[in-house]
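Hi support team,

I'm filing this because I wasn't sure whether my run with cobalamin finished correctly. The job status page said complete, but I'd like someone to confirm that the output block is well-formed before I use it downstream. Pasting the exact inputs I used:
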Amino acid sequence: QDSMIIINEMLIPALDVIGDKFEKGKIFLPQLILAADVAKECFEEIKTFMANKGAASESKGKIVIATVKGDIHDIGKNIVKVILENYGFDVLDLGRDVDPEAVLKATVENDVKLVGLSALMTTTLGSMEDTIKLLHHNNVDCKIMVGGAVLTEDYAMKIGADYYAKDAKMSADIAKEVLG
Ligand code: B12
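And here is everything the job wrote out:
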């Protein structure tokens, strides 16, 4: 609970300030990278803390997660992973800049019923749509949840996702609904 407060009320707003300043040209790429590195360190600490408190032992089901092709933003995706693992789900993290084919392969080979995709840029929403289309064209029996700052619920539905999650807590609620 305390970890979620630190993430949602302190770390994410701080990154929003950084993003805003970057957009307005008040800070530049080196500062953006520095801020991202600091945030990563903080999330690592929280992850270790949560792991020490003891995650659930019995797996509640498998979930594939990935940041889509062309996108290297993975802080949000990594938070989602930590939270899902804490709720007892097995997370197969494919990393960032992930090819749609790799998502398809991991989902089919591991008989995964829930896939989570992340995209942080308007330019990579197309890769997200391509990944969803590929899963649908191959008739993969799985639900797809999507997230990332540039997404909206409407857009998520338009590109064929089953669920839109605005934050990590919501991803856990969706996983509970889909996987029980
Ligand atoms: C940190 C950061 C970086 C870091 C990334 C480090 C890393 N390892 O991730 C670095 C410095 C590398 C970077 C690079 C770039 N960035 Co950048 N970056 C950011 C920044 C400041 C914060 C993003 C972040 O981590 N937020 C915090 C996390 C926790 O939030 P989140 O990702 O939204 O995740 C939460 C939810 O969305 C949801 N969620 C997210 N994913 C998923 C997935 C699932 C399955 C679910 C269920 C939920 C979920 O849950 C998460 C937790 O609550 C944003 C600004 C912003 N405020 O968003 C810009 C931003 C995303 N970057 C931007 C840009 C333009 C770039 C660059 C192109 C810059 C450049 N000129 O090179 C490159 C892109 C390189 C690439 N190909 O991807 C733009 C994108 C603009 C746009 N609309 O397309 C932004 C919005 C900044 C801006 N305002 O201009 N960036």
